[in-house]
């Protein structure tokens, strides 16, 4: 079976600037949680931005269901089924929660089911129903992250890419976010997660990818990545065994 | 007491018109972060279109209003395509757009002066010089009409932004451009349309202004600072803020005019602009600058 998403020797960067990614690769299996780890500035966010079409692919390729995404705009890639939740969560702070959810369906060609789909999401995430008429910017960090993740469900995506969903959240809330993510995965949505806290990310993932200096150093089953002595030395603090 | 109510009414009537004059400026800033110094000069262009339509063919300014709005909206599209679109990806975007809007204001002023001379004009439909009396209090009909029409147009704009699909796309782009793009909003189209709507609103305001104030091509310089004070007090990019700021400042200016002296009335706006920038640069409804 071909991979759902296949990133091969990818080179990309910002504008006319230097290549930030140079030789990044990654394979994505349907319905699994994939975690990309690596030090600050390794290019993890840049990789997600290149996949979703915000940055131009200079060399190499990104194939989704065997088809190249080269040259496509973010909205075209979204319509193919890849959703991206950036680090800043991409919410509209002065729109209500309900309006934010509605914007999530902006790219849908057929709007007839949109309100129903939003109702269903409110049912699944009661906090969003409770806050439906409140401005998104007035919610707590965890609630905002919940909204951002829940909003991706409206377009029934194949892949959801999450850039550091745990950023700035209390540990208890972080676990809630990972739980939402795992439920999404159990429903068949493939997750591509970037996580600064490598150990926590890998513990919640099936597949691990180690990125450094814009290159993929290593990828494999999350348990193997965690157990690898080199990875432990470099990124997991050196002693904690899996 | 009567004089206080009288002053209040005159302030409120003007507040509506200035709110409309400022709302297009605010919309354009919100979506594109363009401080459009040419906005008042385009209001004057709308005023001239209305003036000549009345003078030559006797068309009522209120009938001419939608036409002026459409003409100016078309000019807005042209202007955006020719001048601003190519700047969208420039690193010196804010500096360039300020210079370009300044140049545009000069060109519009020069063109109007060349065509229509510097004579003061005012459109004079019968209601422009009428007044309604309630006891000893009078309301100038022209200002009343202008104020009411302004509020109707602003309400329509607010409903469009709040409830239509494209209006939501405009608000989304204002609040988080990158997120809007990620969700499939055609941000370039939003920019063109917002610019068209913003300049269209300038045209509509011009129709009303043409019978409320006397005007000439260079009059717009006076309004730049006035409109800036409204938009800054309201919080750059917040249309509701602009409207509230407009009523507040126009009422204050009316009282200053009545009780301090007419020449101090305009100073209210400049002083307000100065004070806001010192005390609360994000305005009443704006984000803190560092978050914007
Ligand atoms: N908008 C940008 N423009 C130019 N360079 C950027 C931009 N964003 C990130 N970079 C650069 O790309 C490199 C990788 O950044 P990033 O992908 O954000 O790293 P990570 O997410 O792994 O911490 C850094 O050197 C950073 O300076
Ligand atoms: Mg990052």
UniProtKB/TrEMBL annotation, chain A:
SUPFAM superfamilies: P-loop containing nucleoside triphosphate hydrolases (SSF52540). Residues 5-238 form the ABC transporter domain. GO terms for molecular function: ATP binding; ATP hydrolysis activity; branched-chain amino acid transmembrane transporter activity. Gene3D superfamilies: P-loop containing nucleotide triphosphate hydrolases. InterPro entries: AAA+_ATPase, ABC_transporter-like_ATP-bd, BCAA_Transport_ATP-bd_LivF, P-loop_NTPase. It comes from the Bacteria. The keyword Membrane does not apply. Keywords: Amino-acid transport, ATP-binding, Nucleotide-binding, Transport. GO terms for biological process: L-amino acid transport. SMART domains: AAA. Belongs to the ABC transporter superfamily. This is Amino acid/amide ABC transporter ATP-binding protein 2, HAAT family. It comes from Poseidonocella pacifica.
Automatic annotation (TrEMBL), chain B:
Pfam families: BPD_transp_2. CDD domains: TM_PBP1_LivH_like. GO terms for cellular component: plasma membrane. The keyword Transferase does not apply. The keyword Membrane applies. It is a multi-pass membrane protein. InterPro entries: ABC_transp_permease (IPR001851), BCAA_transport_permease (IPR052157). Keywords: Amino-acid transport, Cell membrane, Membrane, Transmembrane, Transmembrane helix, Transport. The chain crosses the membrane at residues 6-30, 37-57, 63-84, 96-117, 137-161, 182-211, 223-249, 256-279. One of its GO terms (molecular function) is transmembrane transporter activity. GO terms for biological process: amino acid transport. It comes from the Bacteria. It is found in: Cell membrane. Its main location: membrane. Belongs to the binding-protein-dependent transport system permease family. LivHM subfamily. PANTHER family: AMINO ACID ABC TRANSPORTER PERMEASE PROTEIN, BRANCHED-CHAIN AMINO ACID TRANSPORT SYSTEM PERMEASE PROTEIN LIVH. This is Amino acid/amide ABC transporter membrane protein 1, HAAT family. It comes from Poseidonocella pacifica.
């Amino acid at each position: 079976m071909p991979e759902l998403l296949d990133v091969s020797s990818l080179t990309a960067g910002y504008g006319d600037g230097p290549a930030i990614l140079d030789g990044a690769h990654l394979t994505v299996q349907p319905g699994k949680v994939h975690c990309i780890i690596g030090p600050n500035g390794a290019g993890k966010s840049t990789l997600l931005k290149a996949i979703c079409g915000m940055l131009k692919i200079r060399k190499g390729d990104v194939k989704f269901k065997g088809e190249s995404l080269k040259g496509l705009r973010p909205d075209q890639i979204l319509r193919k089924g890849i959703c991206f939740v950036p680090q800043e969560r991409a919410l509209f702070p002065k729109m209500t929660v309900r309006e934010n959810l509605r914007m999530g369906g902006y790219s849908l060609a057929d709007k007839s089911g949109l309100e129903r789909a939003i109702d269903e999401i409110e049912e699944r995430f009661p906090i969003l129903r409770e806050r439906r008429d409140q401005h998104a910017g007035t919610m707590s960090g965890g609630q905002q992250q919940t909204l951002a993740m829940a909003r991706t469900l409206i377009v029934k995506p194949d892949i959801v890419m999450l850039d550091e969903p745990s950023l700035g959240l209390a540990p208890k809330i972080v676990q809630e976010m990972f739980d939402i993510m795992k439920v999404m995965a159990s429903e068949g949505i493939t997750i591509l997660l970037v996580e600064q806290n490598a150990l926590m990310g890998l513990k919640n993932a099936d597949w691990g990818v180690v990125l450094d200096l814009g290159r993929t150093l290593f990828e494999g089953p999350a348990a193997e990545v965690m157990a690898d002595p080199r990875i432990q030395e470099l990124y997991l603090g050196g002693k904690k065994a899996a | 007491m009567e004089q206080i109510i009288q002053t209040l009414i005159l302030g409120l009537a003007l507040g509506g018109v200035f709110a409309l004059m400022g709302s297009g400026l605010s919309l354009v800033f919100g979506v594109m972060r363009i401080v459009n110094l040419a906005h008042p000069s385009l209001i004057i262009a709308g005023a001239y279109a209305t003036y000549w339509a009345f003078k030559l063919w006797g068309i009522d300014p209120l009938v001419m209003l939608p036409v002026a709005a459409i003409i100016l909206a078309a000019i807005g599209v042209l202007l955006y395509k020719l001048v601003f679109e190519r700047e969208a990806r420039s690193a010196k975007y804010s500096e360039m757009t300020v210079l370009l809007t300044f140049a545009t204001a000069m060109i519009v002023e020069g063109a109007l002066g060349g065509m229509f001379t510097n004579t003061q004009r005012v459109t004079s439909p019968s209601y422009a010089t009428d007044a309604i009396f309630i006891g000893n209090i009078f309301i100038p009909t022209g200002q009343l009409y202008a104020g009411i029409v302004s509020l109707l147009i602003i309400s329509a704009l607010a409903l469009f932004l709040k409830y239509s699909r494209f209006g939501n796309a405009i608000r989304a782009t204002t609040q988080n451009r990158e997120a809007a793009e990620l969700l499939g909003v055609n941000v370039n189209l939003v920019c063109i349309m917002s610019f068209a709507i913003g300049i269209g609103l300038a045209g509509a305001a011009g129709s009303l202004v043409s019978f409320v104030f006397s005007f000439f091509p260079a009059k717009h310089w006076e309004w730049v600072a006035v409109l800036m004070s409204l938009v800054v007090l309201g919080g750059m990019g917040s249309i509701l803020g602009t409207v509230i700021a407009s009523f507040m400042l126009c009422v204050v200016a009316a009282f200053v005019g009545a009780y301090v002296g007419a020449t101090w009335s305009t100073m209210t706006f400049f002083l307000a602009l100065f004070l806001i920038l010192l005390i609360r640069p994000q305005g009443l409804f704006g984000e803190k600058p560092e978050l914007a």
